[in-house]
Amino acid sequence: MRILSILLFTFFLTFISCQEDFELDEKNPNSETSLFAASSRQEKISSTNNEEILIPAILNTQWRDFNSIVDMSDDDIRNTLIVELNIKTSESISDLQAMSNLELSNYSLLYTLLKKASIRKPSELRHMSFEELRNTIIVENAKYLQNQNKRDLKKLPTEKLVQLGYSWYLPIEYNSLINYSDGKLSKIISPYKFKLKDNKGKSMDVLKIVKTNETSNNHFKYLGVYHIGTSNDNYNLQLAGSNDLFNWIHIIELDHDAHQGDIIKWGEGYLIAYEEDKQQGNNNIALKYYNNYCSLVSNMSIYSKSIQTSINSFGVEGTPDIRGVSGTSPTNGNIQIGFHYYDGNIDRLAMGILRNGNYWKAWKDALSEYNLREMNFKGNIGSRKSFRYGETDLTLQEARLIKGDWSTWKIMNSFKLFPF
Questions:
Q1: pLDDT of residue 25
Q2: Measured CA angle at 172 (ends 169, 174), to 5 deg
């Protein structure tokens, strides 16, 4: 746990952000003191594209994993939600078939919330209608959220009720992590470093760290990827090593016109994802895979790929984070990647899966986008990094409250689609 705390703290430091501290009231852990806890505003899920709603929903429920998604059509995913909801609630197949994709997604998310938060047991949910699911979360939201009453909550769409539910549940569930008074972060040991630099005096911007588990004495315990600026708009991706997370030795430059890197260990090898802009203004995601430690520190990759942009016509996609891998290597497995894209105005969330090193399937993450906008984030949605906390995968997410205002960057935790 000490290593987890240091890694979390180091990652917090390397974001270019200035989050305002907040904590739950120790006497009332359900109080809302966060600047962006439970907005009463109502955004609309703007996407009308089926996969942008269906895929995030089914991944959130864990009724199918990312390996299955690659081969599933929109109809396959829709039918899966129908079958699962029929099994898990009292709703009939015919009634479910008459619902829109958004309704199916929303009720899948609502079911998952009621189960995860232990508001109802699966055996109880099995005999409940969707109306009863809605009434249940309305009662819980009124109980935990200040200035919310049942009458007003009944007027809200299901997606808003789910977002409000997670806004009080997640800070309670992960209070031991985020509470700055007596949580895990409060026990971080000194020393600590701000504005981290390598041994060459170069700023280690957007550092991502991996533990190597190498046993050789001349191998570093930790490796990190980061970028350094070469001009106002150009960056090069670097690799450095450390044995204590505080002192970093530069090893090698991994690529030019490359930045916003992420790194994980995959078997005995290492996978790196990053944003490249070999053509100014045409940013895309790139990957490199190294079969072992020595290959990585020598920058001798056995696989590399530049992924063509596909979300929209603006051709700007980047800040990848590696969400998951399966199989033995990029050419014999799947890679799940979160990233953001530029829509001509601001950066928004997306996700994709690369199968067997060649086939790329990407979609806008409309549900995560909705939940962030509901927390008053009007500007860019920035970098993110997944980490394991206990038995759960969480994500550190960076986002900007006000477009164009660098002072409004914030960092929050996120559980799947739901930030807190």
A1: 35
A2: 105
Tokens representing 69 are 């998604």
In angstroms, rounded to a whole number, what is the distance separating the alpha carbons of residues 326 and 266?
Answer: 9
Token pair of 223 as six digits: 């490796």
Please, are residues 353 and 58 in contact by the beta-carbon 8 Å criterion?
Answer: no
pLDDT digits (tens, 9 = 90+) for 380-408: 999 999 988 888 999 999 999 999 999 99
Task: List where CATH 2.115.10.20 sits in the chain.
Answer: 202-364
Distance CA 37, CA 178 (A): 14
* Residues in contact with 353: Cβ distance below 8 Å, sequence separation at least 6, in sequence order: 66, 69, 70, 334, 335, 336, 337, 360, 361, 362
When mean pLDDT is compared across 3-7, 45-49, 308-312, 344-348, the lowest value belongs to: 3-7
Task: Confirm if 334 and 382 have CB atoms less than 8 A apart.
Answer: no
Cα→Cα distances 80→38, 332, 352, Å: 31, 26, 20
Other C-beta atoms lying within 10 Å of the C-beta of residue 152: 12
Q: Which CATH superfamily is domain 202-364 in?
A: Glycosyl hydrolase domain; family 43 (2.115.10.20)
Rounded Cα gap, residues 174 and 416, in angstroms: 14
